[in-house]
């Protein structure tokens, strides 16, 4: 009887261990399923489509690297000029927007952490725009920047549309983007600042370090990984810019803010006929650019120790 009881107890323990081993799969499984359905499969299909001539209605016809040769090297093709114009404008937007989207939330977070009394109220105010849809944000700013009835134009006596000339169009796009996205990075920095070792701050105070010196020599090294994360994620997000120039400037003036994603969408869905293969090739090249830039950022901002 004792032997049977030991075997029964052993079987129960083994069954319990097997059940416990299933818990990770239960938590990870739904996310993995969504990743496969909505990211992995579309990505593989997009890579395949980039090697085909496809109009979304007939069967894809495999053409090899012809689409890539067209957008990269065929100077007589309109797709070649579209690709380089869109990519250049996208890089310009990333160059203008990313430093501001990283630095401004950091300074706001430092200011809020220094005044904890007002922290929650201003944190909510700065984070609120990130909850809005891009269409709502653009409608708000179209009203604010309107020459006819916009409050900014009336207050500053502006008689011309600032979106019709450069660099005002880029400035407007950067301001709108920072206003819309400032909350996410700010929350990350606030959490990081709360983790800065207090003993290091106290040691800096004893050494007579000022506020700027403590920020450079204590605060920044303590939150360098959070800065790396926000820099890379913000860069990826701004490379995928689409709604701001589409709804605010329409890609103008004279296509100077016409980013690559706008050309991709127009070629695939916006014209009378679809060139899905060309659009997919442009999207793959954009993805490769994002990967290269992110890798460079990781290399430059890595922990050299």
Estimated radius of gyration: 26 Å
- As for the CATH topology of the largest domain, it is MetI-like fold
Order of helices and strands: HEEHHHHHHHHHHHH
Helix content estimate: over 70%
Shape: globular
Task: From the structure above, extract its key features.
305 residues, mainly alpha, MetI-like fold, two-stranded antiparallel ribbon, 1% strand
Structure write-up:
With 305 residues, the chain is mainly alpha-helical. The protein folds into 2 domains: 2-49; 86-301, MetI-like (MetI-like fold, Orthogonal Bundle). It contains 13 helices and 2 strands. The chain has helices spanning 2-49, 66-73, 78-114, 119-127, 134-145, 151-155, 168-194, 198-206, 211-222, 224-239, 243-249, 260-270, 276-301, and strands at residues 52-53, 61-62. The longest helix is centred in the first third of the chain and has 48 residues, at 2-49. The model has no long low-confidence stretch (mean pLDDT 86).
Précis, in short:
The chain has 13 helices and two strands. By secondary structure, the chain is mainly α. The longest helix has 48 residues.
Write the layout of secondary structure elements.
Blueprint lengths: L1 H48 L2 E2 L7 E2 L3 H8 L4 H37 L4 H9 L6 H12 L5 H5 L12 H27 L3 H9 L4 H12 L1 H16 L3 H7 L10 H11 L5 H26 L4
Antiparallel strand pairs: 1-2
